[in-house]
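Archive transcription. Copying these from loose printouts into the bound notebook so they stop getting lost. Printout 1 of 2:
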Amino acid sequence: MFDTLTDRFDGIFGRIRGKGKLSASDVDETLREIRLALLEADVNFEVVKGLVGRIRDRAVGDELSKALNPSQQIVKIVLDELTESLGGEAMTVSFAAKPPTIVLMAGLQGSGKTTNSAKLANLFKSQGRNPLLVGADLQRPAAVEQLRTLGAQLDVPVFSEPSDPVSVARAALDEAKRLGRDVIICDTAGRLAIDEALMEEVRQISEVLDPHYTFLVVDAMTGQDAVTVAENFHNTLALDGVILTKLDGDARGGAALSVKEVVGRPIAFASTGEKIDEFEVFHPDRLASRILGMGDIETLIEKAEAAYEEEEAEEAAQKLLEGTFTLDDFLQQMQQLKKMGPIGNLLGMMPGIPKEVRDVEIEDSQVNRLEAIIRSMTPEERTDPNIIDKSRRLRIANGSGMQPQDVSALVTQFNEMKKMMKQLGVGPKKPKRKGKGKGGKRGRRGGRTTAKGPAPMANPTAVMNEGMESLQGLRLPGLPED
């Protein structure tokens, strides 16, 4: 969503990065370009005015420290103020001491309330909570049925009845107590536009439930209309936060940068894809860092830790360094990597990635082609790809739907990766420790030993890099050569 804005900031900062000293005209020109970039991204005019004003106050004051050169300090100031505009800190949801904690979901029709109600339930469930989904949207055809389908996928119960939304909300309180559920998430009806009937209905539901949190679900692709919608709902419901959907879209993203300052309520969660688990707590500092092209290493580490088993990651890294890494191991690493989300998104989170690499669209289907090639090999060929001759190569290509040259390229680049990693791992080796039997910890190799008991947690960055390293240097079929 913020690719265009990121590219604009790359250009702005690139022009001042090489300057050892910034003149007043340099600062003015930089601020002018920042203002234009934000306005083109559909950020609210008053928000842009306030943001640029705060940057100017700090840039022309005494804050240009001697620790960083002036251009670096300008970048830091922009990062700080952009983070503040987005909300400053991530919102923390506190659960009621006396359950259930009640969450009311509001928004216009088509914003994604039903889907994001289920996504929120999935997030709470992963935190050890027992949510109950409530279908109070009785106007949209199949809305309750959609919620039931999503609830079945998550193994989360869904309550609704063919009466009226207010009665459903009232009955849901008793149902949550009967089932012993500690969180209620109520999905309400929406309209194509704000009207008095919509506001009155959601206000009555709110009076019955007395929710601990009222979240407005906003489609990030609606631009400045999203800010207007948020203002109107806030005047009726006193919102606690905003859930921003379709943050993975190709809109300009101005709503994300405007809603906090205009409405005065933080963005609590962000939906980053269509899958039920593509939903996360919104971190203003991380998004600001990504907008400025600095990556988002914290989110990348969290995704890696969730996708990778520590022992498996360490074993894969050790095989890489010893040169015993096979195509079977590589296939397993690719499958783990795909759990972290679309590879294009992961590249956007990595700091220092050039614009040319960020802009390359890498689809999961292209990674699937690599998997198809490997799966078309025999176990013997995966262990020792050097035995793949012309006839084997043709068979593998036919089996995977690829060309023989794609198979050759994969084998060649895989061998180069193994050779490079083995050179990094050269060194004196100590005898391997024997395992402790079934379920015991695998002994570490390569001259490292650990104390008895559970192994300490590996460096999260290293865990992430072990998976990413497997793809480095490999050309995905379908992508152009350099």
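Printout 2 of 2:
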Amino acid sequence: MKNNKASQFMREEHDKIVKILKGFSLEITPFVANKIENLSQFIKPSTTIFITFLPGSDYKDTVNTAKKIQQERLNPAPHFAARSIKSKEMLEDYVSRIVGEANVKKILIVGGAGKHQIGPYADTVSLLETGIFDKYGITDIGVAGHPEGSPDITDKEIKKSLILKNKFSETSDANFFIVSQFCFDAESILNWSIKINSEGNKIPIIIGLPGVAKLSTLIKYSLSCGIGNSMNFLKKQGSNVLNLVKTQEPDKLVRKLAVSAEVLKKNGIDGIHIYPLGGIRKSSEWAQSIIDKKFILTRDGFKVNY
């Protein structure tokens, strides 16, 4: 009898892990996209691919990447980095092109890395206030979330900004969603979602997770993002030099989140975004293998066959 109950419990956990990864999104830079001949060879049709807009980027490269992704029957979702937008004319040209040339309906707006501002837009809200995204029929607008804070903006400013984004979402024609910065600690993610919702957030949340990558790569990106508890977690693992070159998979984190499914639903968490820090193919194949149920549970995580 005990064995039957244990088997049933494991099947339920298995199903929860599959469910939480369904509909996952990925992201890519134009540089990486140009090096891959066919993304659809390893990414399922209709998968959302966010396209980064790093400081110094040319938005026309992002437009071309969006066209490539759309032509491969995937769903392009370009980033708009407020502090890297030079003018309203540039913004409108960028939006009109991604809509007209790549049939884009979903985007993600961020402040942008660093504090250097090259145009009239200091933050996400200032971009939203232009009304340009509604004008061109963007139906889904993502904004950034910070479970462990940000090196570019204070916690007080983050709270104020999220309140303004919520107010704007109530008047916009688009559906809003939050995409969080990647995090390695399930408890931090859950506590953050509870906190922002208690402060008035009503925008659905998509949790950002690290993809499949070497520990040294994860540490490098974490340092640039200034994440706290997760950085401490990585440093402990990196105390053994051999661990730095090992490929890490976020199976333990995904399992902890999956078994908290009721808490996730209660706090408006309804999706997973994977930051493919070690390569988009690896992370995509890892996640898709989970959806295809090609994994077995281990003591506190699971092992994927991909």
